[in-house]
Specification:
Length: 420
């Protein structure tokens, strides 16, 4: 695989590559959401949807040999023609469209940059266990199975090219999936167009919208390969989709928490020492009140009446929030959640062992809480500008604070290190 040396720091690098794509009749049945938003109860339905569903690669079970199993499955699908490499290197234009949704981005090999270079800006911290899991999978399969999602602030020539291609050319694929969106993919194989994009991205920064753990995994793999003396190679790049947030503003959704074993009654009772707690017989009424409440506010729900938390004690908040953080960071509802509500009020950390997460859907979080005799914490969505401000200042919001969307569908285009 011919990988060029990365140029000196100066902006984003998105390199064309020979994508690996499915050659099956029912493309919708082999795709999935990104690995980290698939609910446990949905894994089996994806496995049942098609014998070649991508979830067999991105979530290869829990056994000791699961990473080798994913490697062997990928090799089998490549050998049998289930997956096929495209003939020429391309940048892939990917569009998701539906009611009130239109997102277009370019998928390619992203030149990796260390955070200190301020070219690719993270806005969330990562969990070491998740990075270790993704690294083991990436090493075993020698591939990037799903793109990360980045936002950058406007490159006019690229935006014009993206619009021209999407509006006038026939796509490689067009597929309608159960998420209610239409997914289309084009291949930009003209070197002149690829050069235009390369020149246009110089000087630009990008913020990671989704895929912090995968980007951290890219960097960990690159570091390990360089430490082993292997020099430039496919590990200097990672599969990514770049979206111009000026031309195609993304949606920003909330990520809710579920605390198994903490009863709703106990959670509300303990909150009364630090918050104003308002009881609602109907969950819908509590959620409507949350939408109108001043931040920071939360809804607690589960078995029993819902509770709206508002107006936390300012003295307790001030003591709980880290003094070294910016005022912008301390004002985020997820900062208040992770530094005050969870540890100070309920005596727990917002980590993978204690707290489960649910993307977007408050009712799904409430159902989970009821099934586990726990408490759902319904969290308002952050403001996009607040997230950008925190990231630009070199800070990171607490884990699982944001869910930008729509997220790229996994399985439409893959990258393998061995593709020439």
């Amino acid at each position: 695989m011919a990988i060029p040396e990365l140029p000196s720091p100066g902006g984003l690098v998105l390199h064309p590559f020979r994508g690996v794509r499915y050659a099956v009749d029912d493309l919708a049945a082999v795709t999935s959401p990104p690995y980290d938003v698939i609910a446990r109860e949905d894994v089996q339905s994806l496995l049942d949807s098609h014998p070649n569903n991508i979830v067999r690669l991105i979530l290869p079970g829990t056994g000791e040999g699961r990473y080798d199993e994913a490697r062997d499955t990928l090799r089998s699908w490549l050998d049998s023609g289930v997956l096929v490499s495209d003939d020429v290197p391309a940048l892939y234009l990917y569009e998701q469209s539906g009611p009130d949704v239109l997102l277009r981005g370019l998928i390619g090999e992203l030149g990796l940059r260390a955070p200190k270079e301020r070219v690719i800006l993270p806005h969330e911290d990562v969990m070491p266990g998740t990075v270790a899991d993704r690294l083991a999978l990436m090493r075993a399969t020698e591939s990037n199975l799903e793109p990360i999602f980045l936002l950058y602030d406007g490159a006019a020539a690229t935006a014009d090219l993206v619009s021209e291609v999407a509006d006038t050319r026939a796509p490689l694929i067009e597929v309608h999936i159960g998420d209610g969106l239409t997914h289309r993919l084009w291949a930009l194989t003209d070197p002149a167009e690829q050069d235009l994009v390369a020149a246009d991205l110089r000087g630009h920064q990008a913020m990671i919208a989704d895929g912090h753990h995968r980007y951290a995994t890219y960097l960990a793999l690159q570091r390990a390969e360089h430490d082993a003396g292997r020099g430039p190679g496919p590990w200097d790049y990672g599969l990514a989709m770049l979206v111009d947030s000026v031309a195609y503003p993304p949606n920003l959704h909330a990520i809710h928490r579920v605390i198994p074993g903490l009863s709703l009654e106990e959670a509300a009772a303990r909150a009364k020492g630090a918050w104003q707690v308002h009881e609602y017989a109907a969950v819908d009424d509590a959620l409507a009140a949350l939408a109108e409440a001043s931040p920071p506010s939360f809804v607690l729900a589960g078995n029993g009446p819902a509770h709206l938390l508002t107006d936390p004690d300012p003295v307790q908040i001030e003591r709980a929030m880290p003094a070294a953080r910016s005022a912008q960071w301390r004002s985020l509802v997820t900062s208040v959640l992770s530094e005050f509500l969870l540890p100070r009020v309920w005596g727990m950390r917002d980590d993978e062992e204690s707290v489960r997460i649910v993307h977007h859907d408050p009712y799904a979080a409430i159902r989970m809480a009821r099934a586990e005799s726990g408490t759902a914490v319904i969290v308002p969505a952050l403001n996009v500008d607040d997230v950008l401000t925190v990231a630009a200042g070199g800070e990171r919001v607490p884990r699982k604070s944001t869910s930008f969307g729509p997220k790229p569908r996994t399985g439409l285009v893959l990258r393998t290190f061995s593709t020439p």
